[in-house]
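Database export, one record per block. Field names are fixed; values are copied verbatim from the stored entry.
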Amino acid sequence: MLNEAWKRRLIHIAHSGTGKEFNLKTRMAFPKTVLGQKIHQSKTMSQTFPWLHKIKGKVLQDELLANHTSIQIGGPADFLIFPEDTQDIQTILKNRGKTPIYILGEGTNLLVSDRGIRGVVISLKECFKEIKRPLFFKKEETERRAVIKVGAGAKMSYLAKHAARFSLTGIEHLVGIPGSLGGAIIMNAGAEGTEIGSVIRSVTRITRNGEIETLKPEDLSFQYRKTVFPDEAGIIIEAEIELKEGDRSEIAATMDRHLSRRSQTQPLTIPNSGSIFKNPEGDAAGRIIESLGLKGYSIGKAGVSIRHANFIVNKGGATAKEVTELIKHIQKEVKEKTNIDLQTEIVIIGD
């Protein structure tokens, strides 16, 4: 079940895949259950959700979110919408009523329930992925900096490499982080002591009422694997990051080292959702789990990675229920043997 904290916020998840596409112009009829509300099968889309025909982007019904999450698990979403522009998002938010809304990023750090999501899932991947050229300026006589405007759907790996091409330093350690910029901001993603919050200059989002607002760093609270907004309900569409000029060869070498270490220590070739648990203060969750002999431990087709104990992998056909049971088993073992309460980093949503 979706916990209360995440009911109040719009979660950045991910997208890629196929589904049943509506021809909005012909206003095809809904099935019996739409957006969690039972309706008569003869009612048309315009009668049930009159604003949906205004969406210019693609709309998929009953799309399996397993096609859109990195762990390849997840039941169907009532609707998966790929907005064409900001106006599409505003249309959804202004007319949503009590319909739950979720945002799809790259589908990492996410577990969707086997029953799926009753509501609307919005993917920003097709229209909010632009990474603009840096705008350089002098901060001090000897220091050059640059601001890059980035769409929320842009991949973090692409952003880090884009910055490196212009000899900009500050996010090279984040090159191996899977996921989109929007999701990285929501989670204040980080690696090797670097967090995305440290380079944010502004965040532009659409509020629950469909208004566009721009927030500055002083409006936000960047915490460990969490960013607190003035009002947690909103959809990030763009951000500006500020980086300083550095040595291109050193930046490239740092990225190469990070990517090489990641490929050697993480199960990149097996479906997974990224780190499952937050690191407790002064220790690493993976080290603790491994010390208890839980590497390789499985429930059904969900197993603790033998490469990195803070990863759960889908060995083929795993269910969200199996992953959830495995998470609870790990937490129980760690609590009983170390008295440490492991907190999940992964977001669990759905019915």
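Remark 1: The chain has eight helices and 24 strands.
Remark 2: The CA atoms of residues 277 and 283 lie 12 Å apart.
End of record.
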